[in-house]
Specification:
66 residues; alpha+beta; two-stranded antiparallel ribbon
Length: 66
């Protein structure tokens, strides 16, 4: 896969009841997603405007909203 640009984001910590999750995001530009997601026909890409209606884990939602 070729990409136009990538950069590391700031680490993010999310606390759960029994553990803490530390995420080190990498933002990648210039990648066109495939028409399908993996080999599962029930999965699909979602437009940014659709994200509020999708049940996402809190740390994933925070990353996408930044």
């Amino acid at each position: 896969m070729q990409i136009d640009a990538a950069r590391s984001g700031d680490a993010m910590v999310h606390g759960f009841s029994h553990y803490r999750l530390r995420i080190h995001p990498h933002r990648i530009a210039g990648v066109r997603p495939r028409d399908a997601v993996g080999d599962n026909g029930d999965l699909r890409w979602a437009a940014r405007a659709e994200l509020k209606a999708i049940g996402l884990p809190a740390p994933v939602r925070r990353l996408l909203e930044e």
